[in-house]
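Dear Dr. H.,

I hope your travels went smoothly. While you were away I took the liberty of generating a structure for the chain from your last submission, since the lab meeting agenda had it listed for discussion. I wanted you to have the full record in hand beforehand rather than looking at slides cold. The sequence, exactly as received, is reproduced here:
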Amino acid sequence: MNSIINFSEAASIALHSIVLISKTDKYLNVTKISELTGSSKHHVAKVMQRLVKERYVKSMRGPAGGFVLVRDPAEINFLNIYETIEGKFSSSEECPFHKKKECVFSKCLLNNITVKMTQDFINYMKKQYVIDYI
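The corresponding predicted structure, in token form, is as follows:
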């Protein structure tokens, strides 16, 4: 069955990884994160590089290496992580069909539900903090 909401695997890996890392006081490596999330090591490594670059986590090489959280989990909301991976949400109220600047109809065929769904998603993600899942 298709879903209206499509959450990318990269965003899922990022969210799950941040919470998993925050739940341990040890370094968590790509292999372990990959096992726990059911994702490929390559994809996890790529996502983790982005999270290191944005200073959510730091990495340490070597057999005892891996990733640890750099930021306070009480200050990281899910929207921060999601937008780190997927990019910032647009605040525009564009037609979901992205075909024309002006609609030929006097009333939106979808009653602007996609705009409302996006805003609801943003509001929900803003309220979810990593600390709440530790």
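Two observations you may find useful: Residues 113-127 form the longest helix (15 residues). The chain has five helices and two strands.

With kind regards,
E. W.
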